[in-house]
Amino acid sequence: MRKRFCGSGEHVISRRGFLGTMAAGGVAACADMTAIQALAAPEISAELRRNQKRCILLWLAGGASQLETWDPKPGAVTGGPFQAIQTSVPGIHISELMPRMARRLKDTAIIRSLNTRNADHNSAAEMMMRGRPREAGLNYPDLGAVLSRELGQESSPVPDYVAFYFATEGRNMAPSNPGFLGARHGAMDLYTSMIPENIRRNGISEQDHIERADLRGTLSRGFERGRSSLTIDSHSHAYSRVRGLMSSEALFDIGREPQRIRDMYGPTLFGQQTLAARRLVEAGVPFVRVGRAWWDSHGHNFETHQEMVPELDQVMCTLLDDLEQRGLLESTLVITLAEFGRTPNINSQLGRDHFASAWSCSLSGCGIRGGSVYGRSDATGQRVADGEINAARLFATIYRALGINHRKNYHVGARPIPLTDPGTEPIREVLA
């Protein structure tokens, strides 16, 4: 008969201790899904919920319109055909295309005052993935790499950074990039398959795999002896985690979810990938990015958003509900973000063009004061009227919500590299 967990602090199993034990147990511990499934045990799941922070980024590639989502302007010449609806928080209205999120705004903060001054897809996407513009001679890591470094565990059998992006449009505009943090913190990029193909042992027996790993380890240790460099260390760390990653295949298989849960997320690729993201963070993956493309509505903006915003509404609301029901929302930050927004002015093709002067994003869950709005655009949405912020302040807020010191420095050689630009402060009004 299975013993009950008494709740005593003397018997709490920490994630670090558990994973360290798994690593010490060697090959057998990760030969199948047993170790991964153990993460679902009540004692360990409770410890994960209390201590580990995670983040899911819903990346609205191409630039979703703030006017058709978080900052509608009904009645204004720039407003378009959709109305604003009252949310569950008195005085806060969002687009009628988002009725589900209107009802459950209690866990979400809306930021309506981004002015990032960059309306070029490539460089803007890079900036909104990193929190700062490109600097010559310095390859900054993106958000996922930083969270892999700050929230990941050295001996974790699951990946620290997973990125879904199946669309061809915009794929090369903001590829995942560990920058100076090295390959250890790079993404597992999924472009064509929900389940990573490169973690399967195609045609290789378990024994062959063990012996090849042992041989590689012997050769590597010989090569590393007397040598030290970031490249060598990064390469060795990446290989040291392969065994555990190869045991994580089932985490990506949403067919293991009850049909009821799959139906909640919906049949779309975006819904399926977001469900996979929930499975991944529940198992301990610190950061998952789910790309939804293509929002670049230079023509037929209203038809585009009438199709895509309700899908975002359903998937986002379902994700927040699902995380909350599993006790994970307090430790999981959910971000909706793009590289920029859309122009208030409507062009001759009934579209909205690139716009970075007064646009919106949202933060939900971990560390966030829900049911709040920060900043304000003017009556027609042309400029920020109050509370202007840039990418650096948004990233400082994200880091603070996740319990990360946004003032800390990394080092490239002897040069200190601050996590956010010096003097940057988080938006305290949206932090819990």
Keywords:
16 strands; 432 residues; single chain; 15% strand; alpha/beta; Alkaline Phosphatase, subunit A; two-stranded antiparallel ribbon; eight-stranded mixed beta sheet
Helix content: 25-40%
**Uncertain stretches of 5 or more adjacent residues:** 1-40
Label the structural class: alpha/beta
The span between the termini is 42 Å
Q: Could you name the CATH class of the domain at 59-151 and 167-198 and 292-430?
A: Alpha Beta
CATH topology of the domain at 59-151 and 167-198 and 292-430, by name, is Alkaline Phosphatase, subunit A
Percent range for β-strand residues: 15-25%
Describe this structure in words.
The protein has helices at 15-24, 34-38, 42-51, 99-103, 121-130, 143-151, 206-224, 230-240, 242-245, 259-265, 269-282, 301-325, 391-401, and strands at residues 54-60, 84-86, 93-95, 108-114, 161-164, 188-190, 287-292, 332-337, 341-342, 354-355, 359-365, 372-374, 376-377, 384-386, 409-412, 415-418. With 432 residues, it is α/β, with parallel strands linked by helices. It has a domain at 59-151 and 167-198 and 292-430: 3-Layer(aba) Sandwich (Alkaline Phosphatase, subunit A), CATH 3.40.720. An eight-stranded mixed beta sheet has the order 6-5-7-1-8-11-4-12, with helices on both faces. A two-stranded antiparallel ribbon has the order 2-3. It has a two-stranded antiparallel ribbon with strand order 9-10. Helix 11 (269-282) packs parallel to helix 12. The two termini are 42 Å apart. The model is unreliable at 1-40 (pLDDT under 50).
